[in-house]
Amino acid sequence: MLNRDTVSSEQLGHLGLVAATIRELGIIERIDARLELNEKKGGVVSYGRRVAAMVINGLGFMNSRLYMTPHFFQDKPVAQLLGSELDAAHLNDDSLGRCLDKIAEYGVTRLYSELAFEIAREKNLLSQRLHLDSTSFVLYGRYDTEEAAPGIAQPDYGYSKANRSDLKQVMLSLVQGGAANIPLWMEALDGNSSDKTSFQETVRRVQAFTQSIHGMPDGLCFVVDAAFYVPEQLASLNNVFWITRVPAQLNEAKVLLNKPCDALTWEPFDANYRGSVHETVLYGIPQRWVLIESQQARLRELKTFQRHLDKKSQELIKSLWHLGHQVFQCPDDAKQALKPLIKSLKYHQIHYEILPVERHTGKGRPKPGAQKMVIGYQIQACLSTCLERVGAKKETLGRFILASNQCDSSLLNNHAMLQQYKEQSCVESSFKFMKNNAFELDSFFLKTPERITALMMVMTLCLMVYNFAQAHIRQCLKEHDEALPNQLGKPVQNPTMKWIAELMNVIAVVTILTNDQKHRVVTNLKPVHQQIISYFGQYALEIYGLAAESARGTGFSCLAIEQNNYKNRLSWCET
Questions:
Q1: pTM for the predicted model, two decimal places
Q2: Which domain, by its residues, includes 86?
Q3: What is the 8-class DSSP label of residue 455?
Q4: Which of 51, 216, 251, 260 gets the highest tally of CB atoms within 10 A of its CB?
Q5: Which among 43, 166, 47 has a CA at the least distance from the CA of 102?
């Protein structure tokens, strides 16, 4: 007889895909090979499986923070996901805390970089271009400011990219590259670290690390934001190519940015961009500067500039009105009152004259022929716009400068230089993903800097698994000329893993007890689910209880699914 005691269910959803990707990347085995479990002290769950559990939690999109992993797995098929006879009780706070301590003891950056570059080399994901950026994560709680061990991030106050200067923070420096944009390098930095110094230190460490990697592409080129460009420090970077944005505050940059168009030789890149190349040498470093002009950026900046110009005009008119109603003791006082206003002018001109104020000073009605006395002076002024300056400024809007020490345009042409810099957004998207409310990794509640630093490595592993899985499913769809329905039911070949998680949210594992026998069934599997699962190979088929014969071909293959009516395939979501 079926009742609440004989029937139970566990939420599986997309977590099987996450677990399959973890197995495909060999994360558990690679960590276990480096972090040895001491079974004599009662260790049951290997460190690799503990990390895998935290990654599955982090990619669960259930608003469950990583420190609540034990609670997260209470209604999940743990053994099915982690590949051994485990249950949620094994993944308790003490177990996960000891795992974070072990990671910190081994070396957070060391462990992650060894895993990432090993995986990238095996999956052929290494490339010459590496994108570097950093972000901050706020901390809640009190942390001592004692000096931390090497490689451990020290919580401290600093420039907050989250606009929470009242809280301590830690910094995360990330290097991404390759076709899947997986993070290849991560560093947890002190909360008060500066990008102007940390970027160059990170580049040196990555360069030194990659020199020992067999199969690493030659001529690594780092793409970094403007904070990297500190001319007097760039000379210390040997045998490293870089692409970065030149800070507009540099005197040399100001001259180039404000050059009129007719004084420049332009090379059109596409309908939006054009560039002007300039060779320069700063602090003994030969560089290629490319002045980029974007038409779309120019239109945006024109609107902003005109809005600021109109606002400034209104402020000046108001100030002149107030000054015009004041009476000064002498002309010099009037000029002194005008001086700060005139000094602030950039695109306006003030035409003024100082007139005496004459009045009868006696009491009562003045006698006929009585002379008026000068009692003070007033300013009579009018405001005009300096059209020449405004026109010159408008001509230079929408510009920025890219710099590289790769001066050979046959190896890196100007358009490719721009394209590489635009791909810097991949790191920014990764940080946005980490700070997303669904991911719940924008703030920490751990007690020690060691565990905070180790947890940042787990976060980066989450990003690696997410990006790899997303790139893989998109590649499968293109290779097989197939598609999946998007939120509107239209076929697409570039779904996000976040949307895949939404699609598979209804999948569950039902356990039925009959005659002392346990039957486990994966329910709510629709054709679209089977298609998605088949892309993730044998591991995923086993987790979701699908026969290996149902896959077409070998490896990561696809099931034969009709692609005619996508909206009908989404009907199960609407009922």
A1: 0.84
A2: 11-108+454-463
A3: H
A4: 51
A5: 47
